[in-house]
Amino acid sequence: MKRQRTIVTFNSNMNNNNHLFHFLSEEIIFIILDFLNQNPIDKKAFSLACKSFYAIEAKHRKKLKPLCSEHIPKVLNRYPHVSHIDLTLCPRITDTSLTTISNACMSSLRSIDLSGSNCFSGAGLLSLAVNCKNLVEIDLSNATELRDSAVAALAEAKNLEKLWLGRCKQITDMGVGCIAVGCRKLRLISLKWCPGVGDLGVGLLAVKCKDIRSLDLSYLPITDKCLPSIFKLQYLEDLVLEGCFGIDDDSLSGLKHGCKSLKKLDISSCQNITHVGLSSLTGGSGGFLEQIILSHGSPVTLALADSLKKLPMLQSIKLDDCPVTYAGLKAIGNWCASLRELSLSKCAEVTNESLSSLLTKHKDLRKLDITCCRKITYASIDHITNSCTALTSLRMESCTLVPREAFVLIGQRCQFLEEIDITDNEVDDEGLKSICRCSNLSSLKLGICLNITDEGVANIGMRCSKLVELDLYRCTGISDSGISAVANGCPGLEMINIAYCKDITDSSLISLSKCSSLNTFESRGCPLITSLGLAAIAVGCKQLAKLDIKKCSSIDDAGMIPLAHFSQNLRQINLSYSSVTDVGLLSLASISCLQSLTILHLKGLSPSGLAAALLACRGLTKVKLQATFKTLLPQALFEHLEARGCVFQWRDKFFRAELDPQCWKIQLQDIMQLR
Amino acid sequence: MDHKEKLCADAWENPSSGNDLTGKISSDCPPFAIFKPQLHQQKWEDPSILDYGGIRIEPSFQEFNQPSETQTSLPCNSNNDTKMADREDGRMCETPQANKSQDWDPRTMLNNLSYLEQKIHQLQDLVHLIVGRRGQVLGRPDELVAQQQQLITADLTSIIAQLISTAGSLLPSVKHTLSTTTPSIGQFGQLGGSFVPSGVGTDASVKLQNSNGSKLADQSNQTDLISNYGTEQNYSVEEHESKDEEDADEGENLPPGSYEILQLEKEEILAPHTHFCAICGKGFKRDANLRMHMRGHGDEYKTPAALAKPNKESSSEPTLIKRYSCPYAGCKRNKDHKKFQPLKTILCVKNHYKRTHCDKSYTCSRCNTKKFSVIADLKTHEKHCGKDKWLCSCGTTFSRKDKLFGHIALFQGHTPAIPLDETKGTQGPADHGEGSEASNRVGNINFSFGSTASGGGGVVQNLMDVKESINDPTSYFSPLNFETCNFDGFHEFPRPPFEDSESSFSFLMPGSCNYTHKTGGEPNSNNLE
Questions:
Q1: What confidence category does residue A19 fall into, taking pLDDT thresholds of 50, 70 and 90?
Q2: Which of B425, B396, B399 is nearest to B410 (CA)?
Q3: Chain A hits for B422, Cβ within 8 Å
Q4: Are the CB atoms for B34 and B148 separated by under 8 Å?
Q5: Which of A137, A146, A620, B274 qualifies as a FRET site for B446, CA 20 to 30 Å off?
Q6: How many angstroms away from the CA of A303 is the closest CA of chain B?
Q7: ipTM value for the complex
Q8: Do A148 and B418 touch (CB under 8 A)?
Q9: What DSSP string runs through A568-599?
């Protein structure tokens, strides 16, 4: 009723100026619409302006991301030119839905995303494959119940180029064999975590689909039997062999003669591959290799570094969690190619000397990850900032020996930084002030930096206007003035985490409500925040999709009502330990795209209220509940909800009082030392 | 004669079960038991084996014994024996005669002579015994006397025959001129596994009808049959003069001319068994199995010499390597083919011919889909049938997944077929098609069953005759008729009826015992009709 009235008023307005829009051709309006991508509500509003706009918007729309499958037939009727359908928000996609889609879209459909839906089978896929002749991309990730027969039906999609089958646990070589025979044009296929697929399926895929560019075989039980045919793929650029424990040095020897086009090789977690296998890369296939990922693999020794020495195009290497030696890192420093990206996270053996010898020659480095390199000190930071002035990304979480003075150097010398992660460091206001000179900064993570105060954070607001992501988790020295400075200076902020900043009050939230792009807001453990502040966020930040107000004990039902009304994009909410009751929870049902709900230790929650709320929120896919409710509510209710596509996670945690932040950090360090 | 005929009929009813046969015979033929004096008449039931031992010792003598035994109411046995001896692969004849035809061997001669001596002594003892028993009062003295006479006659004939054959071996050049005498049959016996009495009479390379035919012609009426059979034997005997084992197989790429090419006729190839027990007539595909079987016939077959692989000594003489040619014109394995590739052994020939040029008449009883022409293939398949869960869209099944994927990788358009229990209607039609096809096939099988039965071979022809004359379908399908040889014979003749129709009755299968089935004393007429 209300919507109807709005349309009428808009129409009456339009009728007055109708002639103006007649001058605009359809193409021009299309171009205008192309820019209306930020908020889905915008296009909705546009289409509701008048009948002609409605028609034009319907014609223009190419992508569709429906929230529930019930309305798909009507929606598809309205949008005839849709070529991309994303069904990830629909909790339940059945064969009927797929048949409807395939009959409505026919050959206009080019891409469909079904990752996360579990309720369809081969019949739906067959109708998609048969009717939608131009289907090029299909994402079936996480379809854990999907069987070979369904995949075999998909093989009818002869023009398929991209296929994701990650975590399709039931499919085997037979299904992949059908795909290999049917979909000869495949360019990308991901078989990550398909434990039923082995050498035969992968081998056949490589034999039949000669156009494959990208092949993800992570965690497959493959051995060297299928690798020869893979290495014969002429156009293969991206090969992921992560966690393929059956592959060893001998298997890689085939690389000497094939795979000239390879650009990216991921052999992380392959413990059986050593420098011997890698040396075959230099034989032939390494010519175009740009990125190599050796994380969680064999020790980075001199031999390993030497085996990769001659790769001319190499730009990126990831050695996360590898045992490293001084000689090895030094040898990397002597490589002929100039690295752009280097990751040494969790390499506990990295020292000042090895890092500096490595970086001496790689002055063009753009991305450096030295997370948890706990041995490096001021000298390393000095060296990094000295030689790698073009750095755009620096991740150095938990480099605990780096003193606070070192952070000043970062801001002074690396002006192009866009991403900085200095979580859990000794950085202080002085350092932060210096870092804020990086005017391109878009992501700044300052979690557990206990030395930071409002003074430092104010600099962020003053200098970093492009900031998108700010993590102030457990920065207990921060109060409202700091946050309001950020909110004023960083209008493009999309994500902010002020969890456990216990001094934050509603005024911070009111100022943050100016950041209209904000989509993720986390304020766990801020006891001073009330419903008033939350209401401000809800009204101001229409994009809000993720909200975590766990342990904000002052927030009650009064905060939920504006949230339910304004935050129509909210998808995930955590209300644990808050003062929300049945009423507030029930009001959230009006948020049509709400999918994930975590409600632990809500004192005011009654079983019947919970049941009503769960039934009312039709889009729920994941609900975390206290285990006690399992017995308090009828089993049939849960069965009904599960049939709707909702998954329940039961938690049985005791209520825990919040610790003092300093105490918390000491406890954390104790735990880490024990490890 | 009445008695004999009756016995004969009885015997024919149980052609391959030697014990039954002898059980019946023994009551009528006490003289056999007299080989061992201590045996009393009540015990004559069991010593049948001994009797047989006595008769059988020399397989090549069976033919010779035969005439006399026809008199002694053992026609069926002798009949079988004939074939057995004829069919025997030379190497299986470990007995002295086995070697005699090849060339003269003093040791063999000595053996023969000593054996003859032994035999004469036995006969002597027998006669003594009979003389000693004259005084005793027996149930049916006349009958017994007649039987004793027959037995002695038989033994004497046997001795004479062996004497002649021994003498004949001294004169290899006379072999063929001696065709009317029994030794030639002995020679037949030597002529290797290739010498299979399945001649249809249409293809004639060298006809050796003379030997059997004329020899047996003067025998009792039953031998007409054998003569027929002998007459139709066509074989290039010359090629097999120096029969040898096929063990020594050299590399495949023998230069042409470096080996001798032998070509068996298809009837010979398709004959079910090549080795026959001279005593009970049971057929075997392998000589080794026959030798194992022979152990049951007496201690003399249990000696290491008898059990040993025969005929090794002959390999010392220089012989050409033998290779075989398939008789099927146009086949790559045929010697006239441009790119002729010889077959290594007779077994290879048999399997090749059946697999390539014969109908696949054996259908798997489990899947009703797979058909084979070689029964061993069927058996191999049946072992795994049902376990072949790896299915291709073309209908081929594989026992191993990698084989399926190799197949799919090789052929365009073939795709793995997901098992039915998993698919939901996607593969349905194809499977239904297969099912109906299978059922059709079952129909075909039945049909071919009938058709081959009608004209597939002499045996079956005889069966038909029996059926006509008796109007007893049960006998037609009775297990008796499908005893080993017969059954095999039937199955190994999957040819269309017209091929053999003209020669069907002239060709006698080894197990064609049932041709006299219930027809009493006129087997010939029946056969010759």
A1: low
A2: B396
A3: 147-149
A4: yes
A5: B274
A6: 37
A7: 0.80
A8: yes
A9: TT--EEE-TTS--BHHHHHHGGG-TT--EEEE
Cα distances from A566 to residues A275, A505, A534, A544, A587, in angstroms, run: 57, 21, 11, 9, 12
pLDDT (0 to 100) of residue B16: 43
Whether the pLDDT of residue A614 is over 90: the answer is yes
pLDDT in tens, A637-650: 999 998 888 899 99
CB contacts of B409 in chain A (<8 Å) are 203-204, 207-208
**Smallest CA–CA separation between B393 and chain A, in Å?**
10
Calculate mean pLDDT across residues B454-462.
Answer: 38
Say whether B413 and A121 touch across the interface (CB within 8 A): no
DSSP bridge partners of A496 = A470, A521
The answer to whether A174 faces chain B, any CB pair under 8 Å, is yes
**CA of A234 to nearest chain B CA: how many angstroms apart?**
18
Q: Which residues of B touch A178 (CB under 8 A)?
A: 415-416, 418
Q: Report d(CA B337, CA B330) in Å as an integer.
A: 6
Chain A positions touching B408 (Cβ under 8 A) are: 177, 181, 204
- The C-alpha atoms of residue B93 and residue B112 are separated, in whole angstroms, by 14
How far lies B459's CA from each of A544, B12, B44, B167, in Å? Answer: 93, 14, 33, 37
Q: Chain A within 8 Å of B400 (Cβ-Cβ)?
A: no
Q: Measured over all CA atoms, what is the biggest interatomic distance in chain B, rounded to whole angstroms?
A: 91
CA distance A336 to A282: 13
**Chain A residues 582-641 with CB within 8 Å of chain B:** none
Determine the 3-state secondary structure of B525 from DSSP.
helix
CA distance A553 to A577: 6
Does B420 touch chain A if contact means CB atoms closer than 8 Å? no
Q: How many CA atoms lie within 13 A of A662 on its CB side?
A: 2
Q: At A113, which helix (H) or strand (E)? A: strand A111-113
Percent of chain A with pLDDT over 90: 62
Selection from B161, B7, B150 nearest residue B75 by Cα: B7
Other Cβ atoms less than 10 A from the Cβ of A650: the count is 12
Interface contact flag, B416 A153, Cβ < 8 Å: no
The average confidence (pLDDT) of chain B is 57
Q: What pLDDT is stored for residue B312 in this prediction?
A: 53
CB–CB contact A204 B401 (8 Å): no
Q: Nearest-CA distance from B432 to chain A in Å?
A: 17
Task: Please judge whether B415 and A149 are an interchain contact, meaning their C-beta atoms are less than 8 angstroms apart.
Answer: no
Tell me which residue in B401, B414, B423 faces A149 most closely, judged by beta carbons: B423
- CA dist., res. A347 & res. A339, Å (int): 18
What structural domains does chain A harbor?
A: 26-57 (no CATH), 505-674 (3.80.10.10)
Q: Of A405, A413, A404, nearest to A383 (Cα)?
A: A413
> Using the beta-carbon criterion (under 8 Å), do A123 and B414 form an inter-chain contact?
no
Residues A130 and B24: their CA atoms lie apart, in Å, by 76
Burial grade of A240 (CB within 10 A; 0-12, 13-18, 19 or more): buried
Q: pLDDT tens digits, residue range A373-406? A: 999 999 999 999 999 999 999 999 999 999 999 9
Distance to chain B for A204, nearest Cα, Å: 6
Q: Please report, for chain A, how many H helices and E strands are present, in that order.
A: 29, 24
Residue A641 φ then ψ, to 5°? -70, -40
Q: What pLDDT sits at residue B181?
A: 42
Across the range A491-503, mean pLDDT stands at 94
Whether residue B409 lies within 8 A of chain A, CB to CB, comes out as yes
Interface check for A173 against chain B (CB to CB < 8 A): the answer is yes
The residue ranking higher by pLDDT, A3 or A275, is A275
pLDDT of residue A130: 92
